[in-house]
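Possible regression after last week's pipeline update?

I re-ran a chain I had predicted before the update to compare outputs. Posting the input and the new output here so someone can diff against the archived version. Not blocking, just want to make sure nothing changed silently.
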Amino acid sequence: MARKPSPTVTQIKTIARLRAAGYPLSVVAARTRLSVATVARYCARLEIRKASFKSAIVEQAKRELAEDSAFVERVKGDVRLLVLDGLAQSRALRDKIALAIEGIGEPDGLEAAAVALRAAAAAATALRVNADMLGGIGIEADAAAERTVLTVSVMTPEQIGKAIRENHHGEEEEEGGL
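New output (post-update):
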């Protein structure tokens, strides 16, 4: 039985290029018209690991970005803007929640407040995701331990009455203190 011919230099270069770029053995074999076993053997012989080219490029890019002070300053500026935007949205969210709670005592206020508070919970979740993302890059290292949790639940009529009375009592104290 005749032995199959060895891969050509072009095929070996293709094996190296595709495997280093992250292609699976089966794809490399199909593109070079060689068996998977032959491709695997040459990858082992030449010490070519899957995606080794990508890893080297990513590491080089990381080094270059870390050394690029202008890039770092642009990222810091973008992060500052994201933090300021998050703070502004948090303030607006707090105002919306206060308006929804004030409207509970009005006719149909409970339903409207429930809808508004559900929307506020969704917005708070989006802000939390943004804050977590910023925390992941070291912006909120100290604040991460002091996270506020927003819980929305159905209140009984007694709880609603108590909240309204407490809110009005607090407003009277503020007006008296001015």
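Follow-up from reviewer: compared with the archived run. DSSP finds seven helices and no strands in the chain. Marking as no regression found.
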